């Protein structure tokens, strides 16, 4: 890793993944670091962020079970000046044997002192058979103090011989509350973050949604549409036509419908007293006045009508027609 500025959090600062944190921090604390780890879990679960945080902690000279963020090694890591960290990514659709050979050559050079070397391999399951066999030999006979961090969505897709020589570190999908905490800490507008974490799996996908130019406006339109759909049918139809399909919002009807499902779900949350779970928390006064206007089953039917509209759109029904028919069904109860 050379010349690339990094904003790498410590292990403790990362959202969720208590099992992964426990495994890695125990290794640091007891100084029993394995020569190879397999980070396995779904996209968006933070595997790469955890790998960098663990690598930073391994290079740190002052911390016990995490990076201190203050020492020279941590500062070098932050500024992208850590020559003993290597990132391996697929070349096209796979990681090839030439990449493994090049990695082995780089890791074979003696570093100053006894400092360990670390490599992070993304999408490790894409290694060709030759590459995997070459890596296997290297895992069995590392030439210098080396730590391998292999990242994959599916650990079972790795060669059994590779799996057996690594310590598994399981990752689970991040909970919305964990993602919300991280995004708010990044100064993302809380109202947008509360919605995004229920629409996407993983922080990067959430950030991508929030950065959409129309997302804030879409949220506002959904609030208006959600209110009008319950009692002001004509107004709802006009909102759908003028604010959705005559604007750029009509290009993402599925996302709009997903937000609308969250709107109706908020009614159920309010009925159940789960006010902290509200997505549209800024509308709590309006929701409080209308949440008991229908039974919980009634709100579930609203959600079902909305999901059905999404299915019809995917079946090539014109989005405007599908949305208008949904509004009719919601109006009828």
From TrEMBL:
The organism's place on the tree of life at top rank: Bacteria
Gene Ontology molecular functions: 3'-5' exonuclease activity; DNA-directed DNA polymerase activity
Entry-linked InterPro entries: DNA_pol_HolB (IPR004622), DNA_Rep/Repair_Clamp_Loader (IPR050238), P-loop_NTPase (IPR027417)
GO BP, sorted A to Z: DNA-templated DNA replication
Give the Pfam families listed for this entry: DNA_pol3_delta2
Quote the PANTHER family the UniProt record gives: DNA POLYMERASE III SUBUNIT DELTA, REPLICATION FACTOR C / DNA POLYMERASE III GAMMA-TAU SUBUNIT
Question: Which NCBIfam families does this UniProt record tie to the protein?
Answer: holB (TIGR00678)
Q: What is this protein called?
A: DNA polymerase III subunit delta
């Amino acid at each position: 890793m050379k010349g690339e500025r990094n904003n790498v959090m410590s292990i403790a600062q990362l959202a969720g993944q208590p099992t992964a944190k426990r495994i890695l921090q125990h290794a640091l604390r007891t100084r029993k670091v394995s020569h190879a780890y397999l980070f396995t879990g779904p996209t968006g679960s933070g595997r790469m962020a955890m790998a960098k945080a663990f690598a930073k902690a391994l290079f740190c000279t002052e911390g016990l079970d995490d990076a201190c963020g203050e020492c020279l090694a941590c500062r070098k890591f932050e500024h992208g000046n850590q020559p003993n960290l290597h990132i391996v990514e697929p070349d096209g659709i796979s990681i090839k044997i030439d990449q493994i050979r090049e990695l082995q050559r780089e890791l074979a050079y003696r570093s100053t002192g006894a400092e360990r070397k670390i490599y992070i391999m993304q999408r490790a399951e894409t290694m060709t058979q030759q590459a995997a066999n070459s890596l296997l030999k290297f895992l069995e006979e590392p030439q210098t103090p080396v730590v391998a961090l292999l990242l994959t969505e599916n650990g079972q897709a790795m060669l059994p011989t590779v799996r057996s020589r690594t310590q598994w570190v399981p990752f689970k999908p991040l909970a919305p509350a964990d993602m919300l905490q991280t995004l708010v800490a990044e100064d993302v507008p809380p109202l947008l973050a509360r919605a995004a974490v229920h629409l996407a799996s993983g922080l990067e996908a959430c950030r991508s949604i929030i950065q959409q130019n129309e997302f804030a406006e879409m949220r506002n339109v959904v609030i208006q549409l959600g209110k009008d759909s319950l009692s002001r049918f004509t107004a709802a139809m006009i909102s759908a036509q003028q604010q959705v399909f005559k604007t750029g919002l009509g290009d993402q009807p599925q996302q709009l419908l997903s937000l609308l499902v969250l709107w109706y779900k908020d009614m159920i949350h309010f009925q159940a007293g789960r006010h902290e779970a509200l997505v549209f928390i800024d509308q709590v006064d309006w929701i409080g006045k209308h949440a008991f206007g229908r039974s919980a089953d009634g709100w579930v039917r609203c959600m079902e009508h909305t999901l059905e509209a999404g299915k019809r759109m995917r079946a090539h029904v014109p989005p405007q027609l599908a949305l208008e028919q949904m509004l009719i069904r919601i109006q009828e109860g």
